[in-house]
Fold these 2 entries.
Entry 1:
Amino acid sequence: MRIDHCNNIEDFRRMAKRRLPAPLFHYIDGGSDDEATLRRNSSAFDDVRLIPNGLADLSGLDLSTEVLSQKIDWPVFLSPTGMSRLFHHDGERAVARAAEKFGTIYSLSSLSTVSIEEIGALTAGPKCFQIYIHKDRALTYEFVERCKAANYSSLCLTIDTLVAGNRERDLVTGMVMPPKLTPASLLSFATHWDWSFNFLLREKFRLANVATSVNAGNSTNLISVIDYINSQFDRSITWKDAEELIAAWGGPFAIKGVMSVEDAVRARDAGASAIMISNHGGRQLDGCTAPFDMLQRICDAVGDDVEVILDGGIRRGTHVLKALAMGAKACMMGRGYLYALAAGGQKGVERALQRMRDEVERDMVLMGTAKVGDLDRSRLQNGSPLTSQGATTPNFSLAAE
Ligand SMILES: Cc1cc2nc3c(=O)[nH]c(=O)nc-3n(C[C@H](O)[C@H](O)[C@H](O)COP(=O)(O)O)c2cc1C
């Protein structure tokens, strides 16, 4: 299977599965507990159908929108995901460059393997930095100052990771940070020699933003991601801490991980300019409702006072259109580009973005809608799921496996 045979996210997923040692593939692919929320995040879109119009003069088709004070070329941008170096040796650099090329926002995780400063200087594209409130408050505020100096356009505070979700695939595969050879994983690393070669002989793995401040950032100190989260993140934080961080930043600021109407209103009242409705891609609280399931109620509660961004389950252009019609300003995707990064580095991410952008554009034409802002709820119909299994991609593919 080749990159140019990958036509949709499921194709990239299959290719990532072939390319990565099992512990790493399952680290991307997996969710928490029984993965019910992971599945629901995508299948929720099947409960709503699109109603197209015809003869609508689409000569001035325009996919652009403005979110987090940035004009982007199309209404999808990239969610923050930690440790990209594990999935391809170009890591965050590959993804940031692809985002710039496709005119959209790149979000850098606090747990990135390339530093705030290097990504800041690498591209001219808009960048959002994802922040966690660490027990070490000085480190948290140091991030804010570093992002200002490196010209990041926005900040987002993730609030759903005070403790790591129970990701049982990682327990089975022995996924540690960085990956460790255990008897169970040895065979998988050995049979993926190209990945192992690149991991061992190229740039050393490190959590670039915390490498000098926190022991866990040093690749000689092997602790699991779960241990890192459980030991470094502050569980005593409240909305007052968010308010202080928003004031310290003083620019576009999103709260990521909002799932309730109450929190959406609190985020707005704390001064956030955007909320990212997100359950961390089904990696935290299993049994949690899906972002799309909460979108209507949250949009109705916050009105136009705060931008609403949908994060989670996006696998198709039609998912994006449904979210926009329901009231979202833009959508984010995580696994959609991570599978492609693992499958083919920057080239893979570019093809995934191209295919997704093409889908959004084609679906806009098929819907008879010239501007993304023209989509509204009159173009949606509630209904029973389109597929009995909640599948979001066809169960066949022309691409060779
Ligand atoms: C491998 C992986 C790592 C992630 N790391 C982070 C992170 O460091 N910070 C964060 O706020 N969210 C993180 N997320 C969650 C994503 O930002 C996003 O919420 C999620 O991927 C959206 O769901 P989707 O994958 O269905 O698009 C991660 C997700 C994945 C799959």
Entry 2:
Amino acid sequence: MNNFSYTKVANVEQAISQLNGDIRNKIVAGGTNINDLLKYFITKADKIVDINSITENNAIIRLDNGGVRLGALHTNADTAYDPVIEERYPLLSKAILAGASAQIRNMATNGGNLMQRTRCYYFYDINTPCNKRDPGSGCSAISGHNRIHAILGQNDNCIAVFPSDMCVALAALNATVNISGPEGERVLAFAEFHRLPGDTPNQDNNLKHGEIITSIDLPAKGFEKNYSYLKLRDRSSYSFALVSVATGFDLENNRIKEARIALGGVAHKPWRIPEAEDFLKDKEPSRENFSEAANIILKGSKGYEHNSFKIMLAKKAIIRNCFMALHPESQRPGAKPSL
Ligand SMILES: Cc1cc2nc3c(=O)[nH]c(=O)nc-3n(C[C@H](O)[C@H](O)[C@H](O)COP(=O)(O)OP(=O)(O)OC[C@H]3O[C@@H](n4cnc5c(N)ncnc54)[C@H](O)[C@@H]3O)c2cc1C
Ligand code: SF4
């Protein structure tokens, strides 16, 4: 392990001051990802800034606009089991509980979940080239083992996927991210938070050095009547998504008034194509329409030696999850999906 100093801060102002806009000063929250990154020499730090004592970001608050604010330091477990989230945003609750394990969710924070790094095997193996870890060194996954990698939005610089479950639901719900930094406060739409690899695959998101996520806002609309989160993976627990889908519908007289569909496990960021959601507007919830929406979402998809199966898997997952969203009661433990 590299030597680093460790400091605890009591508020956001102190955190920003300690980070000092320097890339080598890193935040630790739950520590479930950054501790591994430090131990494996993937991330190097001069200073670790422990933000766990900041009390101002550790709650779930109802907002005047009908929405809800999730504190960045609230844990994933406390968020998923919060009565307001369970009742009004069950899609989010379900997505969080599909991730990791109970122990990890007890430690993992909401801010840390947005900032977690890819699970590409080569990113974690410092003996292999990886443009995300070591810009300009190349991408080992393109001609290597690429079963878990991207089929959408990738390029030859990086084909990694962003592994979060929670963020797929946040993308579908049109969440916004509240950020504080040396230049003050700003708000980013969820779709603008994470990045595609482009020419800078080392940058996962648009948070600047020295900034801190303080909270995440959910708009009033939670799709609590018709929602579903489907996660397809190699093991049924403790495993990252090969493909996941978050779906929310607003239905009236057997017509779709509004649709939201976001995918996880397929791209460098949660994948949402508004054109597909517009296509479903005012349409009947039918297999034919869901299939066409899936085609629009997956347009331009491209697989590699070991992950081409994901394209068909994603199509089937989208269609299946659209049906599941029509019958959210089918998602209770033990219930069979209604297809
Ligand atoms: C074995 C294992 C299995 C997992 N499975 C899943 C899964 O199936 N699905 C899933 O979604 N996730 C999964 N995870 C990932 C887990 O959800 C994340 O590690 C966790 O959410 C990160 O939160 P944390 O508070 O522990 O972050 P930390 O490890 O403390 O920090 C992670 C990163 O976020 C930064 N950071 C933390 N808080 C802030 C903030 N407020 N502002 C700015 N930067 C911040 C840190 O500097 C660091 O770069 C798994 C993790 C493990 C170890
Ligand atoms: S896919 Fe991205 S993270 Fe994985 S080896 Fe290639 S550059 Fe690195």
